[in-house]
Design brief:
This is Amino acid transporter. Keywords: Membrane, Transmembrane, Transmembrane helix. It comes from Ornithinibacillus halophilus. It is a single chain. The protein is mostly helical. The protein folds into two domains: about 1-30, no CATH class; about 30-63. It is built from two helices and no strands. The chain has helices at about 15-25, 35-60. The chain starts with 13 loop residues before the first helix and ends with a helix.
Length: about 60
């Protein structure tokens, strides 16, 4: 067998080895967002969700 088939992290051919060493290779782990971006996202999506809920409740009350 080829020396490249030694494990899941080893490249299986020279093209993949080139991608890994020269051009870079994406990692499988996702990075975390910075805390300020998380907080802004929570406020935006939370605010939209609350507005939809309030609009639905107001629609049922008025009609």
């Amino acid at each position: 067998m080829s020396k490249y088939n030694e494990g899941p992290d080893k490249p299986f051919n020279d093209a993949m080895d080139h991608m890994h060493n020269i051009q870079g290779y994406p990692i499988s782990k996702r990075g975390k967002l910075p805390l300020p971006i998380k907080i802004v996202g929570y406020f935006l999506f939370g605010g939209m969700f609350l507005m939809i809920i309030i609009a639905l409740i107001a629609n049922f009350i008025v009609n």
